[in-house]
Automatic annotation (TrEMBL):
<feature type="transmembrane region" description="Helical">
    <location>
        <begin position="179"/>
        <end position="201"/>
    </location>
</feature>
<feature type="transmembrane region" description="Helical">
    <location>
        <begin position="108"/>
        <end position="127"/>
    </location>
</feature>
<feature type="transmembrane region" description="Helical">
    <location>
        <begin position="147"/>
        <end position="167"/>
    </location>
</feature>
<feature type="transmembrane region" description="Helical">
    <location>
        <begin position="292"/>
        <end position="313"/>
    </location>
</feature>
<keyword id="KW-0472">Membrane</keyword>
<keyword id="KW-0812">Transmembrane</keyword>
<feature type="region of interest" description="Disordered">
    <location>
        <begin position="1"/>
        <end position="31"/>
    </location>
</feature>
<keyword id="KW-1133">Transmembrane helix</keyword>
<feature type="transmembrane region" description="Helical">
    <location>
        <begin position="43"/>
        <end position="66"/>
    </location>
</feature>
<feature type="transmembrane region" description="Helical">
    <location>
        <begin position="350"/>
        <end position="373"/>
    </location>
</feature>
<feature type="transmembrane region" description="Helical">
    <location>
        <begin position="78"/>
        <end position="96"/>
    </location>
</feature>
<protein>
    <recommendedName>
        <fullName>Heparan-alpha-glucosaminide N-acetyltransferase catalytic domain-containing protein</fullName>
    </recommendedName>
</protein>
<feature type="transmembrane region" description="Helical">
    <location>
        <begin position="325"/>
        <end position="344"/>
    </location>
</feature>
Length: 374
């Protein structure tokens, strides 16, 4: 929960209040503390949930709002960046005053761990659908990463930056000093991401697909596919290094079994969601859009959201907020479009840097909403 601590006025030293008045004052203070919330952030969080439900249920009817199969952005592709933006702004509010860094770290780790485990429970394969007669989960095929896990990773990275890395105060003239240590972390994460994405060699790889729901895998109910790669720096769905890292570290059986790139024309997926045997081999392969490598840039986006939160917390004048927010947003938009023009595609599944910058610049609508409400 993103809460703003109210400025409490203390009574004079040595002044004694009656017991009843003191009890009423304590109740009033407690009520104000619980009620003092950032309304616009709560509204935007609710809009994100509504948007998520809208694209999930209406995306099959209106494909223009569903996730893009690979490169590009649709309405659904803005949901994850918006949630990470909310998480980053919340971190700036919650940890704006930290008296005990160790205690704050333990609380942040516990909160992130709870969110991560909740994500494993909700997206790991425990729920088999309303019409399914099966129950339970296959530990050997449980999905380890997902949406809530990604938010948990971004949250803990941003929280540790806010708790432990030195932060500089804002000047009185409204011009902010740069949080150099935080931006160094963002730059480091993006550098590691680019190095692994373009530098790792992806060899040919194989995987097995079980054709029947039986737990006993035999030669009759499974098929082995081979994907020919032997490339470096490929950003396609078949031979990117992000998928290779997940296959080596997590295991291919623990990845998302129905990746969105199956909607590409090459896969020729049926109306029932079945991929024909004549489709390319990689169309049958699992792929996790919330994988390990793309979590680096997702965490970087959460730290960027933290900087938006710094502006909100430290600056009280709306014009100053708008001025600084507009600098961030238009700079991100311009840089993101430039990177896309230079060959780094807007890709949600890989969470490319161009995608990070362009989608985060769209949080400008929320900036205007903050000014209107708070």
């Amino acid at each position: 929960m993103a809460e703003i601590e109210p400025l409490l006025q203390s009574t004079g030293a040595g002044e004694v209040q009656p017991a009843e008045h003191e009890e009423q004052a304590n109740k009033s203070t407690s009520t104000k503390s619980k009620a003092a919330r950032l309304a616009s952030l709560d509204v935007f969080r609710g809009l994100c949930v509504f948007l998520m439900m809208l694209v999930d249920y209406a995306g099959s009817i209106f494909p223009i709002i569903a996730h893009v199969p690979w490169n590009g952005v649709h309405l659904a592709d803005f949901v994850m960046p918006f949630f990470l933006f909310v998480a980053g702004v919340s971190v700036a509010i919650v940890y704006k005053k930290v008296s005990n860094r160790v205690d704050a770290t333990w609380k942040a780790v516990l909160r992130a761990l709870e969110l991560f485990l909740l994500g494993v429970f909700l997206q790991g394969g425990y729920f088999h659908g309303i019409n399914s007669l099966t129950y339970g989960v296959d530990i050997e095929r449980i999905r380890l990463l997902g949406i809530l896990q990604r938010i948990a990773i971004g949250y803990i990275v941003a929280a540790l930056c806010e708790i432990w890395l030195p932060c500089q105060r804002w000047r009185h003239d409204g011009l902010p000093k740069i949080y150099i240590s935080h931006w160094c972390v963002v730059l480091s994460l993006c550098t590691i991401y680019l190095g692994l994405l373009y530098g790792l060699y992806v060899p040919n790889w194989q995987f097995r697909v079980v054709q029947s729901p039986s737990s006993l895998v035999t030669a009759n109910n499974s098929h082995v596919y081979t994907v020919k790669c032997s490339v470096r720096g490929d950003l396609g769905p078949a031979c990117n290094s992000a998928g290779m890292i997940d296959r080596y570290v997590l295991g291919i059986d623990h990845l998302y079994a129905k990746p969105v790139y199956r909607n590409l024309k090459e896969c020729n997926i049926s109306s029932h969601g079945q991929v024909p045997q004549t489709a390319p081999s990689w169309c049958h392969a699992p792929f996790d859009p919330e994988g390990i490598l793309s979590s680096l840039t997702a965490a970087a986006s959460c730290i960027i959201g933290l900087q938006y939160g710094h502006i909100l917390v430290q600056l009280q004048d709306h014009k100053e907020r708008l001025h600084n927010w507009s600098i961030f947003s238009f700079a991100f938009l311009g840089l993101g479009l430039f990177l896309a023009f230079m060959g780094i595609p807007l890709n949600k599944s890989l969470y490319t840097i161009s995608y990070l910058l362009v989608t985060f610049s769209m949080c400008w609508n929320h900036v205007l909403h903050i000014v209107c409400i708070d």
